[in-house]
UniProtKB/TrEMBL annotation:
Quaternary state and interactors: Homodimer.
Pfam family, one: TIM
The protein's annotated pathway: Carbohydrate biosynthesis; gluconeogenesis; Carbohydrate degradation; glycolysis; D-glyceraldehyde 3-phosphate from glycerone phosphate: step 1/1
A GO BP annotation: gluconeogenesis
Protein name as it appears in the record: Triosephosphate isomerase
EC number in record: 5.3.1.1
Amino acid sequence: APTRTFFIGGNFKSNLNKDSLKELVPVIAKHQTAADVVIAPPALYLLEAQSIVEANNSKVKVAAQNISGKSLGAYTGEIAAEHVLDAGIEWTLLGHSERRSIYCESDEVVAAKTVDALQKGLSVILCCGETEHQRFVENRTKEVVTGQLGAVHKALEAANLVDKWSKIVIAYEPVWAIGTGKTASTQQAQDTHLEIRNWLTTISQSVADATRILYGGSVSAANSDELAKQADIDGFLVGGASLSAQKFLPIIDSAK
Ligand code: PEP
């Protein structure tokens, strides 16, 4: 069976402040686990978070929540991959549902940002997921999710970067489960993860075997153990519960 190191992402979104960040990040940084742990603080605190993990000689990595997808230049308000790399940071989230819905990032924009990140040397947590309407009314989950991932694959092919799938971790996050307290059932999650894994075989069997597929959407200590047991769930992307060590560390400990 393929070995995929369990992966836990903590997405702080637009939360915390200097004091709460300085309290939370060292606790996560010092927590012993075999899992890969990556935390994504608000952009203003990326340098602080990076220096805390470094000061603790921690395996924990830091991620930006977004990048501009442009080079350095006249893009007021934006942070480029170059800035993230200059901060010593190796990861970025891309395509989070809040970026897609609130900030109108299309599949093509997310694909272009993914190409930019990979070209410049960042690793990417690539988010995808269907809305409640798309799953429960239109019955189109597989089409929506593979469409989102397919747009990225098409852009990688055009940029000759198909080998960079090794730098991508997929986060499957049903929109109706994000921040709602409604988790997908283990079966719903596993079924969609398997559909994603099957779609990855159309790239190659080795990409399908090696790519971590995380589940995200109201993950908590109460549901993480059962989700973690599923064959195609290789970790979690955690929003709300990553803001408190008391809630986040038990999720990290569900690593299989
Ligand atoms: C997320 O935003 O990636 C997420 C999964 O949020 P929550 O855990 O709060 O549902």
